Amino acid sequence: xxxNRILAWGLVFVLxxxxxxxxxxxxxxxxxxxxxxxxxxxxxxxxxxQKVLDGMISRYTTDISYVRANEAEAEDLEGATHLFYYGQxxxxxxxxxxxxxxxxxxxxxxxxxxxxxxxxxxxxxxTSLQETMDGAYEAENEEKAVEFEAQAMFPAAPSESxxxxxxxxxxxxxNPLFFLEDDIYYxxxxxxxxxxxxxxxxxxxxxxxxxxxxGHPGYLRLEDVHPLGDAEQLxxxxxxxxSENIPYMIAVIPIYTDPETGREYHFSDNKELTSVxxxxxxxxxxxxxxxxxxxxRQSETGEGFEFWDVxxxxxxxxxxxxxVVQKTKEDFDSAEEFEEYNQDNxxxxxxxxxxxxESGIDEMAKYxxxxxxxxxxxxxxxxxxxxxxxxxxxxxxxxxQLSDENWEIMRPIPTVGQPTYLHGMTxxxxxxGYVQPEEPDSVDxxxxxxxxxxxxxxxxxxxxxxxxxGLDGLIExxxxxxxxxxxxxxxxxxxxxxxxxxxxxxxADNGEIDVMKDRIALYTSGFSYPLYFLNNTVETVVRGIAxxxxxxxLIFFFYIFxxxxxxxxx
Length: 570
Fold this sequence. Notes:
single chain, six-stranded parallel sheet
């Protein structure tokens, strides 16, 4: 009988879940499609443009693979439903490559150079010339156009039978930007920088035969909150955001290190701030781990880089005080020695990142602050770093560094997704920028950026703000974001985010946070928390003694008053 009741309640639960599904910021890709990115690039390496494309595709499928154009073989395309050719540089394509593309019976899309080699259908595209466009619109919705800073595009003259889906404009002039010529989609641009990523993302539902969805996931992130922050100022911000009933994120740096003295400050050194953060977490905020100290070498916390050596523009393959000697393949007698050298570098970086990530999560958990996502300081981290990070976090917020050659090569991905180079982490991109105190029109610029991302299906409209700038600037940002049509505030507690170390497991659970932690291991891992706990205990005891003492005094006076009253009556 008991078993039947359990089965009955289980059936009721399933039915309720089907009617009232868990509120997620963005649905996971269903995995029904498989995409292959065939590419031509200058160094035959996967570069930033292909990675931007990867990020956009990952909204629809996480089954994405790469193949160099002139190395493509039949097995590389086996089981694929979508084939993207990205010609980043001019290259003579082999007959076998053209044959592979021509014979592919799924959805075919070409971007950039060499499209005329893939099919005579595209021999009207002139990639030797570039025209300028500063606006675009969909063929079926000319009224809803978008304007932006000038971008380059290739001139194309598709046949009358072609279906033009997107036009690029320059004043009164318009040119086909994205069109279907017979069985090939073509995007007529040399790269996916800036607005080109947004515009191609606009057409992704067409490529994956998905209906367009209204609304724009968005978030507000408070940036660079550390143990020396102003508790009173943060409390004022917390009260305002609570009154607005807006879920938001707080990028927290758990350790502040004084660059001159080297002294470390913990949340135990600022109990008022710690209490405010705990209150914010309970009232709608989600914590984002923003590094451990947000510094490398003697830079100031919040200003320096942590997972990238910006002075040498390279990953962290060495200690902060070590002499840096960057070696190339020519410095070694054999390929094996060079490979061993590279592996030693990756092993060093892994150990460094693991230590920082684990220390950061543990430090936060000591004070009942539970991060649900990670944001690299200044958005900088190597490709190997993202792989290590994915072993701890399921969620990443911000922009992505797309190259190990130069930290400045980073771009926002227009939509929520799971790019392959994040190794299973879900990316919630930042797209609008932030308030810069030296720029009086910062908020207007941010709102203009938001307009561009509103042009596309499920385009993310997200921004961050530094609390030290005060409440007035934040109010201006929030009021602006509230005007974004269809904005859906992302609440990480409503996603499937999780964070796991040997000592802590943190999981978002339908608006709440589930935590399992090894308290003894955490609290005995350093001196800061035991002292914090001892001080709090002493303060609690002292307050208790004071209350008891006060009650004793009141009782004493009560008895004196009563005895005198009785004496007077007698």
